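Hey, can you fold this one?
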Amino acid sequence: MGKNLYELAIDHIAEKYKTELMAEEIDDVNSQIEEEKIDEIPVNFYSLSEIPFDKIQDFNVSKLNTFKDIIWDWRQEGSQIYKDDCFFSWDKEVSEGVSLLANENKYLCRLLKMIAFYSLPQNACLQNVKSFNTSKAILKHLQSLGKFLYKHKLFVDIQGNGSFTNTIYLTKEHFTEFIKNDLKDSGAIYDFAKQIKHWVGLSKSKLIPMDYRLNFEPFDADMYSKLAKNAEDNKGEYLPISIDTLSELVPFCIDNIEKNSAEILKFYSVLWPVIAGGDIAKTQPFEWGKAIYELLSMDLKVIDLQMYKFKDYSQVKMSKDLNTKLRYAVKNHPEWNKNNPFYLSNIWKIKQSEILNIALELGIELESIDLAIVYDVSKIKMKVMELVTELRNSCVVILFLVTGMRNSEMYLLEAGNCWQLKGSEDDFRISITVPKTSEGSTGDPVVLPVPEIAYKAFKCLEALTDKARVWGGSKKLMVSSTSNFGKEIVARSINQFLKRWFEDLGIEHIHPHQFRKTIAMFAIYQNPNNISVIRRLFSHQSLAMTLSYIVKMPGMAEEIKLAVIERNKELLSELLEAIDKKCIGGKAGSRIKRLVDESTIFKAKLNDDGWEGLEQYIQILLQDGLSILHRTSFGAICTNTHSGLVHLAPESCNCNVTDCNWSVFTANSIEDLENTIKFHDNFLKDDFCSEKQKRFSHKTIRDCVERLYELKGIDYVKSCFPKLIKENFLTLEAGGRNYGKQDTKA
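Sure. Predicted structure:
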């Protein structure tokens, strides 16, 4: 059965809002796909091309597993939010009914595992991988590469004699044909292309054995960018963030800000020159030994520095300065001078590992020379960078979530744009520059009230970027405080770093625009007592105040209207038809009808104005404060969601529906109203009907008659219930109501 005119009207206006909002999203997030930069952190990793495979088999890939295992399990070391599903099984199909673990596929499995090995955080030299949850997501896409190679019988021991065909006969056309015929959507194609690119990179770097390399690039830079853009463009419309995700993400971000930020900022204040790297590290005085001593004296809990102390001194790696200090300590030791006078001239030629052993044999306390000798400073640096990035991201998420600002507006935030009102303990404001409403280049400032957690998040970002802003000569809050120190983080990069972080946490990818969608849902469901997430972000007062401002921001009104329409299509269509056919009743229905009659924007009838008239109908409904609808008894529509985020089921209203301020009655209610009148009319005839029941039945009949009159008019009511309605009971005048004595008689 096709859609009626009213359903089509609802779809039409929804599509209109979607188009307007999608245009905003496209303008807001530059469509150019940037090449992801790899963080420059020194990492010690193996080249698998230089190691016999039987030794590779015993390499650790997790705390629980080695390279040869079928399952790589990271549940003891995965995301702080999602650990339980952080594992990967190699028991995958590479063709229908064909397992990767089949004996003929052992070389294919070996190749995929070697590629996967370099997708683990500790080995990811060509990718940005900071957590095992990200590794798991990457490994899932390796199955497509396995299917591609098996399809062409590459790395497959067909004869069972230990031989296989490698990539020597592969051409670009093989890859093009595969993505055209075998991959379903643009996202899967782009994921496949990323795996190929990684494989090519490992091959060029000679990190995997020669027989397993791919020595040409099937996708050039332009093709790769095109695939990335197609994947982004075809993700579909952005939806509000799921409650399940919010319930995990919001407490994590808030705890990070409220419980950890002070200590993270202290770590950063000590280590910032070495974290910034580059010219900063060369120009700023910094000594690891002094830094570690200072941090130990602070007794900070967010990082246990003792965990980074070498237990095996063969792992010690020293800078040139530390190496020199150690050799002088040995040279000046009395026992060394006494026992090795002939060796003095050669002390600078001794290997580092030997000089370490000599120092230990002489009883020299390495810590007394320099604390940096006994601590793994590269891992300390990496951990602090991870915490700093995590704090920044937590702050950005909170600011997005409580303001609904766009990427471009986040980029334009400047230090000093958030403040506490004088004389107030819990009243905070933020100034957001909105480029959409301005003819100039700088945009227009909009001041919003925000909850305290947003103020705390803003202040954390100010503290974190203080030195970077000075170095880069920028007032922007979005500047890098780690690598690319002092460089502004442009709008499109904000989405990129959040995407990477969400992958690391193991949660769904969230685009910044989804925070606006979520704010729209908060505006609909304003009762903070029904959802812990909203309670963590807002007090009841701050929620109402913040939303009253946010809904006036460019685009937010459309977001809210679209959210209402999407969740109320069926009932909105029914309301629309009821208004147009003038068959609407109930106190809320009468209120909506009055708004239509008095509206200055609705002047023509439906059939005259077509879609424009329909849109104006819906605008009027929404202007009445219509938020979320649900069906209740009598087939009526309730315009008030009584319990916040809980979508009520039919018949769940506890109020008197026929006399409720929030009920709308339509043609669907007529049969139920008539049956209710008949039921109570018969009830009143019963000899055992109590006085209390009589009063209730009289009122119910009176309310139902009034609703019927609103829907069908006095003539219809009289024709249906001629014996029930008497002149001394009810006088209904055209265009109004004038009730006489309320003595319904059988």
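The longest helix spans residues 243-276. Let me know if you want another pass with a different chain boundary.
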